[in-house]
Amino acid sequence: MSAFSDPDLPCEDVREPFRTLPIRFINIPMDFRMDFVSLQKLLNDVKPKYVLSSSTYTQPMARRPDLRIHYEKIWPIEYDESVQLSKLSRNKRKLVTVEVHHDIVKNMKFKQHPTKKLAVASVACHLSAYNDEFKLVPTKDRIAKQKFGRLTIDKLLKTLRDKNLEVTLDAPPVVDNDDLEEGQVVEEKTETVMHIEELEAKITLKNDGSRTKVTAQNAETREKIMDIIKTMLVEDDGIVGRAD
Known about the structure:
This protein is of the alpha+beta class and 244 residues long. Among the domains are: 32-77, no CATH class; 96-138, no CATH class; 147-172 and 189-235, TATA-Binding Protein. Helices cover 18% and strands 20% of the residues. It has helices at residues 11-15, 36-46, 102-106, 153-162, 219-230, and strands spanning 51-54, 74-77, 98-100, 111-112, 119-120, 125-130, 133-138, 147-148, 168-169, 191-196, 201-206, 211-215, 234-235. A 4-stranded antiparallel sheet has the order 9-10-11-12, with helices on one face. Strands 3-7-6 form a 3-stranded mixed sheet. A two-stranded parallel sheet has the order 1-2. A hairpin with a 4-residue loop joins β11 (201-206) and β12. It starts with 10 loop residues before the first helix and ends in a 9-residue tail after the last strand.
């Protein structure tokens, strides 16, 4: 048996409930707080096959190039992105049975599918996964509904400037056709970057406005920009098969 407690909690307080049991206790104080330097050292020592990380920690930050994870086999994850962990493993996929808590079933409200002859319902719950046993259980905290939509450059610029934010765009490179060799094809720019200097932040629009990435110096600034963007999106009602 191994018990890991908060390093600030006295060892005797942890041991007290188990004092009458035949368990040998070894006190090894640990501090689980980790910075980028210690994380980099840990990766170099352990050499994991893959590292999954938020894309925020894989991109260089303005004036703080040290706040970045450097590892060859790192898999950056975007916000709200679904990741198939089976791609990281040699094990084949397997079907699992997911048990649904009765309170979730009781509160489900079905709606007609927009294109198929069936009814669908959205659920707000947590997925409990322990020892290969999966269960959908109610959540005590309110789960914010997702929003969707496609942003246009003009609309986003107007919304930001209405908030008295000065925005500049990355200009696409100018290509002189006379400098191109015969048969050479110039790849078109697939993303647009908006810089907000006063907030030291930038917004990157990808896939014709269907993907958005916000980069900022701190969480408060990023949340402020995200709140502005959310006002331009539509709340998801949980119905699948909707038109983009």
